[in-house]
Amino acid sequence: MASQDREAKIAKFLDMVAGSDNIVFFGGAGVSTESGIPDFRSVDGLYNQQYDYPPETILSHTFYRRNTEEFYRFYRNKMLCLNAEPNMAHKKLAQLEAAGKVKAVITQNIDGLHQLAGSKKVLELHGSVHRNYCESCHQFYDAEYVLNSKGVPHCEACGGDLKPDVVLYEEGLDNQIIQEAVVYISQADMLIIGGTSLAVYPAAGLVDYYQGKKLVLINKTPTPRDSMADLVLQESIGELFGKIAV
Q: Is 90 a catalytic residue?
């Protein structure tokens, strides 16, 4: 009976996608874990062996300022997964956008995999590892430059420290990106939320702007918003999106 219920839910999801032409996707870390990028919230023994602080502390603005070299040791080790490849969720979203069905991808991830898969309209709530700036002269550097540097990376032009264009704990989100996300979500006929526990605010609050009747939550564990969703699927997001015909 459970498998029949599961298949019925998957069929309903596929019907929703087929019948929608203004889809917005809101994704979190679970979208990229299937590409081999670890979700640092799942603190394992590896972190405890290698670092004296939890990831949330290291990835804070205060820690970055006070312990910049240790920040970069963690950042190079855990955040720069530059060999990761887009999985089926990334690829299908790009195909759906090209077909005119997906209007925007809103992501909490900083890995750039949506763009690598071909998505054009990507709103990065937490920035991107692929953008790094000199804090003195604002010259741009890519992720490879940071990965291949030692200690605190410095600007070749002026010698200033580089800072990744990622939103650290204690830092605010970009208001323009938030406002744009609100517009897309409020106008969507279908909102798919995938790979996020919906626990981090203000990003998680964006779901409140959705006005439609096709709110789908795809996550391997329950979320605080399951009860308000029109459909909840505890599935592998890559496998589920692989079933979508474009």
A: no
